[in-house]
């Protein structure tokens, strides 16, 4: 009898879980929203954040029309779970981005997670206060503000990352190399059904993805299991120094670059620092010509996430002619800025830089 009670409790929790994992997050499709252009253009004549956003949209469109410019997209915060995945997928498909620097959570716990067939769910409003998080723990549901994730699905994601690491030749890898293997895994095991995956599309389009805090996500759990299972044997490892070296190669090989930063943190700093790193390696690297940042961080706390792009200029990282801070929450600003640039069609004459191929060649010679 003692063993039956826990089993009944688990079954009860599983039944309760189903009613909370029903309404799925839907990813916004800006390619179908041509009406965004007049909205953004009208914001030019307003004030405050509206005018800032309109100028940022103009700068992004200018980046795309500048055929010499390589575009680096930086992603921090929980963006894919919030419904922004398809925007980024369409940016890749349309040659609107040449490299991505992201948190591991966006790429692995969220994008790769969904490519495996799992979903993020809309949480009822009464859970946002946090007062019912104990109930969620009992049901193995994880919460991101007003979004739910099934913890059991995340464990499958963890296990799949270990499977990928176990299949690789033991050596040190950059996060770019490891995430390319994630894209390869999706290509070989999912194919067309993964068409709305960032990792999958980036793999096909030669767009490198970097996660400078790579182990801070499901991939970290996969690495832990990989290392633990191979005690005394050669293992796969993540090489953060190689990450920095590879991304610096992009700046060395591309004079004009533009940053499109959503949030701040490590992705922002990593992408900005490659100008200085290129100079340290003896190259005359110009500052990033274009820069946009969407953030809600307060500049007064001195944190990197909130530091202005003008401040970055004092470090020799960002030029101040075409830079714009947009103080807005990402789910509001990103669809407007990208949607505007998409429907202005500047990207149609643009060819992708295929930087992943460039990096394969550069690191082979290193």
Name a few traits of the molecule:
366 residues, alpha/beta, 6-stranded parallel sheet, 3-stranded antiparallel sheet, 11 strands, disordered N terminus
Please outline the helices and strands:
Blueprint lengths: L3 H15 L17 H8 L4 H18 L3 E7 L4 H14 L5 E4 L1 H12 L5 E2 L10 H7 L1 E4 L2 E4 H17 L4 E2 L1 H15 L8 H8 L3 E2 L7 H12 L7 E2 L1 H14 L2 E7 L2 H16 L7 E8 L13 H6 L3 E10 L2 H15 L10 H11 L1
Parallel strand pairs: 1-2, 1-9, 2-7, 6-8, 9-10, 10-11
Antiparallel strand pairs: 3-5, 4-5
Helix pairs in contact: 2-3, 2-14, 3-14, 4-9, 4-14, 5-7, 7-10, 8-9, 11-12, 11-15
What does this structure look like?
The chain has 366 residues and is of the alpha/beta class. The chain has one domain: Deoxyhypusine Synthase, CATH 3.40.910.10. Helices cover 51% and strands 14% of the residues. It has a six-stranded parallel sheet, with helices on both faces. The chain has a three-stranded antiparallel sheet with strand order 3-5-4. A two-stranded parallel ribbon has the order 6-8. α12 links the parallel β9 and β10. α3 (48-65) packs across α14 (330-344) and α4 (80-93) runs parallel beside α14 (330-344). The relative contact order is 0.17. Residues 1-5 have low confidence and may be disordered.
């Amino acid at each position: 009898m003692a063993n039956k009670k826990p089993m009944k409790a688990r079954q009860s929790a599983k039944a309760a879980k189903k009613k909370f994992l029903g309404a799925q997050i839907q990813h916004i499709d800006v390619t179908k929203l041509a009406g965004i252009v007049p909205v953004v253009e009208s914001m030019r004549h307003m004030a405050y954040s509206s005018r800032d956003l309109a100028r940022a949209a103009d700068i992004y469109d200018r980046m795309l029309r500048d055929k010499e410019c390589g575009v680096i997209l930086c992603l921090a915060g929980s963006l894919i779970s919030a419904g922004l995945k398809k925007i980024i997928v369409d940016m890749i498909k349309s040659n609107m981005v040449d490299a991505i620097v992201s948190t591991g959570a966006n790429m692995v716990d969220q994008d790769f997670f969904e490519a495996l067939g799992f979903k993020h769910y809309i949480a009822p409003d009464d859970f946002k206060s946090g007062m019912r998080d104990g109930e969620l723990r009992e049901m193995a549901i994880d919460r991101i503000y007003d979004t739910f994730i099934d913890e059991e699905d995340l464990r499958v994601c963890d296990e799949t990352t270990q499977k990928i690491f176990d299949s690789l030749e033991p050596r040190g890898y950059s996060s770019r190399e490891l995430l390319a293997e994630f894209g390869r895994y999706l290509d070989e095991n999912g194919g067309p059904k993964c068409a709305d995956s960032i990792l999958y599309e980036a793999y096909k389009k030669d767009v490198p993805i970097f996660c400078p805090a790579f182990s801070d996500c499901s991939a970290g759990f996969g690495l832990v299991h990989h290392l633990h299972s191979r005690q005394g044997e050669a293992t796969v490892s993540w090489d953060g120094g190689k990450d920095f070296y590879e991304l610096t190669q992009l700046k060395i090989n591309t004079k004009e670059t533009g940053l499109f930063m959503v949030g701040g943190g490590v992705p922002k700093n990593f992408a900005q620092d490659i100008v200085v790193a290129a100079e340290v390696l003896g190259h005359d690297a110009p500052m990033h010509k274009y820069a946009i940042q969407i953030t809600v961080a307060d500049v007064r706390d001195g944190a990197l996430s909130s530091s202005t792009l003008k401040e970055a200029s004092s470090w020799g990282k960002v030029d101040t002619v075409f830079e714009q801070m947009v103080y807005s929450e990402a789910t509001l600003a990103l669809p407007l800025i990208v949607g505007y640039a998409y429907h202005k069609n500047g990207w149609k004459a643009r060819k992708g830089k295929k930087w992943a191929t460039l990096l394969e060649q550069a690191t082979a010679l290193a």
